[in-house]
């Protein structure tokens, strides 16, 4: 009886030791055999921890100063950031100071080796956190180290982002890598490892004594490797020397934000108002001119010139940001292709207008049709592009912005519908003062529209209903401006986390 009691107490003591070390039975599946995994990190119960521990002033992760806290809100992985080691967090901002990063990489120099920690909170099963070293801020041709939890096994591997931005594991996934700790507990994924100073990947030599941009990402993983990170990634704002101990800020994606801001301003605001003026306001502000041109035409030309300039600048900006063509397939999201078509149509529009024939020319209506078709197509495709941008990880726009765009579209359609119906009523014979011309009338071979405008210009009087049209224009511009500013503000305050 005494022997059985002693055995029972011994088993309970062993079980308690395993629980205290943080590497209990929940970390490894029952059918897992460490001997069958050549890359398994053998973490002994006496050294295994649920979180990393702070480093000594000698810039080494080997010796600890105190035990780690079991907390995803205040883990000891942050200890020493900016003092004895460099740190870079996702999503950036003040997440390091607040100890609230979704993912974190730390780095320091220890002799000829460079020591890293990778950390992710709320990491689900079959997921990863990884750091990439890149010559620029764009993914491609980068050296990557992954920390993964797949089938209950915590491992670290070396991989490479090729020029097509595809991540490929090295033939020897432990080449130049020495993993000293790997744990997964309560959703906290952590790896500590050393990388040798120089490592050749293909034809390229990665020398860690040089400066690199840090790419930090997390996402799903499998036995074959890591999968697409979607929006769970960030890039350092500058290239970093790994001997630095400062906390590094994230790249705010300024060029992407400028691209989105310029395109929204161009097509939702400027182009929308410019098109409305050209279609319904030729018989408004009659006789009022600026530099010899009718006022409606001056407004129209200024707004469409702004559209043209912003579109061309935004087009150049996004190519600079991506370093070329996007890697997103057209079948996945045709935003890029439609954007190119929109830019081409917008680019040729002012040159077509420059060579327009005189209003009395017999084939002026052909130009009118071509000008309308190109402009209307560009505007429609531009709005479609903005809708499609909501689904792009690079844009990082929340899905609820779609409702702002839908509301803008309703306002745009209603504005045209109201002005069309009102003009039709004013043009009808039963009207008190029938309007001599209708919108789109100059699309027909007869030139009544020009003659009507010329007749009104002589008397310097607006067509009937001018005051109502001005009120509709004011309300239209106000609403379109509000929704455009709301979308721009959302873009500028990003990146936003992807919604599932």
How would you explain this protein's 3D organization?
- This protein is α+β, with helices and mostly antiparallel strands and 500 residues long.
- The chain is built from nine helices and 20 strands.
- The chain has helices at residues 2-21, 95-98, 254-280, 295-322, 335-354, 364-389, 401-427, 448-459, 466-492, and strands spanning 55-56, 60-64, 86-90, 103-110, 113-120, 127-134, 142-150, 153-161, 167-169, 177-185, 188-196, 198-201, 204-207, 211-222, 225-226, 233-235, 240-241, 247-248, 289-290, 293-294.
- Strands 6, 7, 8, 9, 14, 15, 16 and 17 form an eight-stranded antiparallel sheet that branches.
- Helix 3 runs antiparallel to helix 6.
- The longest helix is centred in the middle third of the chain and has 28 residues, at 295-322.
- The protein starts with a helix and ends in an 8-residue tail after the last helix.
């Amino acid at each position: 009886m005494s022997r059985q009691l002693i055995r029972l107490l011994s088993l309970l003591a062993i079980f308690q030791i395993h629980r205290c070390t943080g590497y209990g039975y929940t970390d490894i599946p029952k059918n897992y055999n460490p001997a069958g995994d050549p890359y398994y990190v053998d973490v002994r119960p006496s050294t295994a921890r649920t979180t990393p521990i702070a480093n000594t002033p000698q810039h080494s992760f080997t010796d600890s100063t105190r035990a780690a806290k079991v907390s995803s809100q205040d883990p000891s992985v942050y200890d020493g950031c900016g003092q004895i080691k460099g740190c870079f967090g996702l999503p950036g901002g003040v997440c390091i100071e607040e100890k609230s990063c979704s993912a974190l990489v730390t780095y320091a120099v220890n002799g000829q080796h460079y020591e890293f920690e990778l950390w992710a909170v709320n990491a689900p099963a079959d997921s990863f956190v990884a750091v990439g070293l890149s010559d620029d801020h764009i993914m491609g041709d980068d050296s990557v180290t992954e920390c993964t939890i797949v089938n209950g096994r915590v491992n670290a591997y070396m991989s490479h982002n090729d020029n097509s931005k595809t991540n490929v594991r090295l033939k020897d996934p432990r080449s130049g890598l020495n993993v000293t700790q790997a744990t997964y507990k309560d959703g906290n994924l952590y790896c500590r490892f050393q990388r040798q100073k120089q490592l050749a990947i293909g034809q390229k030599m990665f020398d860690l004594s040089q400066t690199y941009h840090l790419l930090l990402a997390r996402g799903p993983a499998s036995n074959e490797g890591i999968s697409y990170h979607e929006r769970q990634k960030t890039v350092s704002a500058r290239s970093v020397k790994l001997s630095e101990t400062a906390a590094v800020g994230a790249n705010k994606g300024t060029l992407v934000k400028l691209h989105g801001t310029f395109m929204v301003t161009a097509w939702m605001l400027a182009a929308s108002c410019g098109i409305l003026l050209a279609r319904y306001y030729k018989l408004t502000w009659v006789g009022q001119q600026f530099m010899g041109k009718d006022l409606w035409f001056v407004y129209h030309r200024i707004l469409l010139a702004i559209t043209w300039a912003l579109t061309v600048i935004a087009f150049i900006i996004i190519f600079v940001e991506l370093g070329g063509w996007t890697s997103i397939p057209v079948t996945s999201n045709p935003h890029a292709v439609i954007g190119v078509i929109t830019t081409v149509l917008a680019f040729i529009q002012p040159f077509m207008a420059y060579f327009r024939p005189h209003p009395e020319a017999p084939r002026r209506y052909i130009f009118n049709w071509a000008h309308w078709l190109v402009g209307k197509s560009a505007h429609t495709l531009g709005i479609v592009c903005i809708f499609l941008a909501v689904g792009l990880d690079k844009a990082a726009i929340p899905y609820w912005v779609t409702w702002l765009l839908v509301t803008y579209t309703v306002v745009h359609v209603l504005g045209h519908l109201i002005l069309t119906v009102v003009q039709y009523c004013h043009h009808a014979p039963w009207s008190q003062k029938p309007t001599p011309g209708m919108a789109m009338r100059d699309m027909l071979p007869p030139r009544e529209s020009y003659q009507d405008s010329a007749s009104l210009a002589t008397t310097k009087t607006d067509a009937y209903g001018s005051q109502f049209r001005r009120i509709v224009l004011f309300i239209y511009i106000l609403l379109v401006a509000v929704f455009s500013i709301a979308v721009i503000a959302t873009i500028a305050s990003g990146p936003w986390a992807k919604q599932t």
